[in-house]
Write a structure and sequence with these properties.
8 helices; Rossmann fold; nine-stranded mixed sheet; about 30% helix; alpha/beta
């Protein structure tokens, strides 16, 4: 395993390459990013008394994405937590020449990435683990937490992709996708992305706190969807529909409404243009016995990249839930 080195996010962030062997496309790695901890208050004479001083957070990004949210990391480190973010194999920092971006045929493949990240945190004795996932990362972490009972203390999901956008049609589509995945897994699945979600994020960006994005790792239009990968996602949706068994409390943050990205309008700057959020809210209740759903008016698909008012509300809702959980489980 390589050593921690400075990360592209600049001061306060480091990255670690996690070797994962080889596949047909060559060497496979994941990349763990850590935010260097914020110092405890100088007046804290009895050790770090911040509410999350014994918490480790592991963040996993969504499809066609990677970790770049410095503001989100600082939310956690300011409260005493150790924050880690994972660029999964063939995404972002982990994408190598000649590899198919984001391609896997089973979301359980990421168990290896997640375990490598958890092992690389350093001493975790007596520390609580919070999983934080966005979109497809939320689906991946939900499935992982259900398969690994008693290993996580809380799960927080930012617009998790828990159900197909055409939920009533999923059962009809799935067998066709499965057959295509078996016969021609690298076939490109039909999709239309006009780049409106990326435009919405630019239009709602905070000029006083700019977010820099690498367009090679997070392209204007989503990466190509292959049949093998789509089958893996639909299998994950089916598992959620049957019901998972996450034994930790779950918090799901969602926009209050969806907007179809068929043409540009200002509505796309205050709604989720990727998922059908009402379907996601219903699916979330199948994750486990303790699920909180927070609906945020004016939020984008990534609620923490929304316009300032909605983003502030998203952080307030997150903070309320986290503080309650931290106090109850200390």
């Amino acid at each position: 395993m390589d050593a921690w080195v400075p990360d592209i996010l600049g001061e306060g962030f480091e990255q670690l390459t996690l070797p994962l062997g080889e596949d047909a496309e060559g060497d496979v790695v994941a990349t763990l990013v850590r935010a260097l901890p914020s110092a405890a208050p100088w007046w804290s004479l009895r050790g770090d008394r911040r509410p999350l001083a014994d918490v480790d957070v592991l963040y996993v990004h969504g499809w066609s994405d990677y970790f770049f949210q410095k503001r989100l990391a600082r939310y956690w480190t300011d409260r005493g937590a150790r924050f880690f973010a994972l660029d999964l194999r063939k995404y972002g920092r982990s994408l190598r020449p000649g590899q198919t971006p984001g391609y896997v045929v089973d979301l359980a493949t990421y168990d290896e990435d997640i375990q490598a990240a958890l092992s690389a945190r350093g001493d975790a004795t007596g520390r609580r683990l919070v999983l934080l996932g966005h979109s497809t990362g939320g689906l991946t972490l939900s499935l992982w937490a259900s398969r690994h009972p008693r290993q996580v203390d809380a799960v927080i999901l930012n617009a998790p992709w828990l159900e197909f956008q055409l939920a009533p049609a999923r059962a009809a589509i799935a067998p066709m996708v499965e057959l295509q995945a078996r016969l021609r897994p690298m076939d490109a699945a039909p999709q239309i992305d006009l780049g409106f979600y990326s435009r919405a994020q630019r239009e709602t960006a905070d000029p006083d706190d700019p977010v820099e994005i690498n367009p090679l790792w997070r392209p204007e239009q989503a990466m190509i969807v292959h049949a093998g990968w789509l089958h893996a996602v639909l299998a994950g949706h089916a598992a959620v529909s049957r019901g998972l068994a996450i034994d930790a409390p779950v918090c799901v943050l969602l926009s209050a409404r969806s907007a179809p990205p068929t043409r540009w309008s200002d509505e796309l700057t205050s709604a989720d243009s990727v998922l059908v959020v009402d379907d996601i809210a219903r699916a979330a209740l199948r994750l486990g016995p303790s699920v909180t759903v927070e609906r945020i008016d004016g939020a984008l698909h990534d609620v923490f990249l929304s316009r300032r008012e909605a983003r502030t509300e998203a952080y307030a809702r997150l903070d309320r839930w986290v503080r309650g959980w931290a106090h109850a489980t200390r």
